[in-house]
Amino acid sequence: IAAREHARGKAERRRRLQVRQTLIFGTLILMLGLIFLIAFLQWQGSMESPFAREFTTEDVPHISDTLACPSEGMVTVAAEEITATVLNSTARGGLATAAADQLTLVGVHIVAVGNWDESVLQGPGVIEVGPGQIAEGYSLQYLLPGMPVMQVDTVEEGATVVLGVQFQAVADASTLQPDQPIAIPEECLAGGTGHIGAGGDLTGEGTVEQPAPGN
């Protein structure tokens, strides 16, 4: 009797083990089949992947085509009153950092340094300012000669300096003196709009022609 009970118990344990193994392997096969079916439907395009999403791109800023027009009687400000962001449009590594360091030495407050990835400016660069920072922009022009001062609505505080391939170095601090009259560009005179068209020749072979800073 004991041997019979032992055999019965052994058979029961074997049966339970087989049931457990059948459930486990059956579940695995079912899951693999489901994964294969989903992958096949996605490969055919009949089903979208829950992880797929469209690529998103940030809006790329463009160089303004509107020259900043100083008002009659506007004068320069001291370097210490100028706030600027310096961006590098060229392949010259460290250009923006070097320019920012030079501007800092003459008193300009630098808030950010980075790259301008839209296009390579072939001239020395461009200074972009908002409507309320025109005096700061033309004052900064003394330190960055050859750069036109363009007006943009997106610049709320300070100036944005985009360096081009012809940029060499920041001018001597003595070139900027506060309370000097700012010359009004010809494009702003006689009813002009200050519009010079697509940033002038900033991305071409030359640079935007502009008057020398006022004395």
Instruction: Look at the structure and give the mean pLDDT.
Output: 80
- Order of SSEs: HEHEEHEE
Largest sheet: 5 strands, mixed
Number of helices: 3
Shape: rod-shaped
Reading off the top of the CATH hierarchy, the class of the largest domain is best stated as Alpha Beta
CATH topology of the largest domain: Alpha-Beta Plaits
The end-to-end span amounts to 120 Å
Number of domains: 2
Describe this entry's structure for a reader:
The chain is of the alpha/beta class. It has two domains: 56 residues; 110 residues, Alpha-Beta Plaits, CATH 3.30.70.2390. It is built from three helices and five strands. Strands 2-1-5-3-4 form a five-stranded mixed sheet, covered by helices on one side.
Short structural description:
The protein has 215 residues and is of the alpha/beta class.
Give the tags.
single chain; 215 residues; alpha/beta; Alpha-Beta Plaits; 5 strands; 30% helix; disordered C terminus
Break the fold down into its secondary structure elements and pairings.
Blueprint: H1 2-44, E1 83-88, H2 95-105, E2 109-115, E3 125-129, H3 134-143, E4 149-151, E5 159-163
Parallel strand pairs: 1-2, 1-5, 3-4
Antiparallel strand pairs: 3-5
